[in-house]
Amino acid sequence: MSPTIIICILFAIGVVLVAYKYAHRKKLHDNIDQLKHVISLTFEEAGKPAISQNRLIKGLKHHLGINEKMALKLIGKARHEDLLEVDSTEMKEFGKTLFRKKFE
User: Among residues 98, 7, 5, 4, which one has the least CA distance to residue 53?
Assistant: First the structure.
């Protein structure tokens, strides 16, 4: 095989992988039911009504297989969709951001 054909095949594989990753992240960002389920799992694992932002990020990363930047975007999406709220009473006490889920 000529080097040109090999380079074209590798380029095509790269394009397909980038397109797949983009579609996967877009699907995660648009799927509110899946986000709600993962947030519920994270709160159940913690066993507390309010959890820290770091714990929530770790839960999203573990259950969805995403990076920290995407986890922060999903937390923002959850807050926008009224799935999470910032617990301001405990935030003053502990000095860190704590979240409560707003659904059952």
Answer: 98
DSSP class per residue in 52-75: EHHHHHHHHHHHH---HHHHHHHH
Confidence (pTM): 0.73
Rounded-to-integer distance, Cα 48 and Cα 98, Å? 11
Using the CB atoms, write b or e for 10-20: b if 16+ within 10 Å.
eeeeeeeeeee
- What single DSSP character describes residue 64? H
3-state secondary structure of 43: helix
pLDDT tens profile 27-65: 877 888 999 999 999 999 988 888 989 999 999 999 988
CA distance 10 to 48: 48
Tokens 């000529």: give the residue. 2
Tokens for 57, please give them: 């990020």
